[in-house]
Design brief:
By secondary structure, the chain is mostly helical. It has helices at residues 2-30, 35-52, 61-82.
C-alpha cells in the first residue's frame, strides 16, 4: 500500500512540475501573481475532474490518484497563503 501511495504522490508531483514548466510564460504574460502555481492548480483541478468522471475505478487507483491530487492542491493553496507581501 505504501508503495502505491508513494507512486501516486510522485506522479502528482511530476505532473505539477510539468505544469509549472509548461505554463509559466502564459501566466506571466497575464501579470498574475505566482503564475506557475496558479497554472499548476488549474491543471490539477482539471485532472481531478477528469478522474472523477472516468468510467472505471481501475482497482482503486483512480480514487487514490484523486486523493493525491487533493493533497497537492491543498499544499499549493497553503504555499500561496504562506507568501504574504
Amino acid at each position: 500500500m505504501y508503495t502505491r501511495r508513494s507512486a501516486s504522490v510522485a506522479s502528482v508531483a511530476a505532473l505539477t512540475g510539468l505544469c509549472l514548466m509548461a505554463n509559466t510564460g502564459i501566466a506571466e504574460a497575464k501579470g498574475e501573481r505566482h503564475p506557475s502555481i496558479q497554472k499548476a492548480l488549474e491543471a490539477l483541478r482539471t485532472a481531478r475532474y477528469d478522474l472523477e468522471h472516468a468510467d472505471h475505478d481501475f482497482g482503486g487507483h483512480r480514487v487514490e490518484a484523486m486523493e493525491s491530487i487533493d493533497r497537492a492542491i491543498e499544499q499549493l493553496q497553503v504555499a500561496l497563503r504562506f507568501d504574504v507581501r
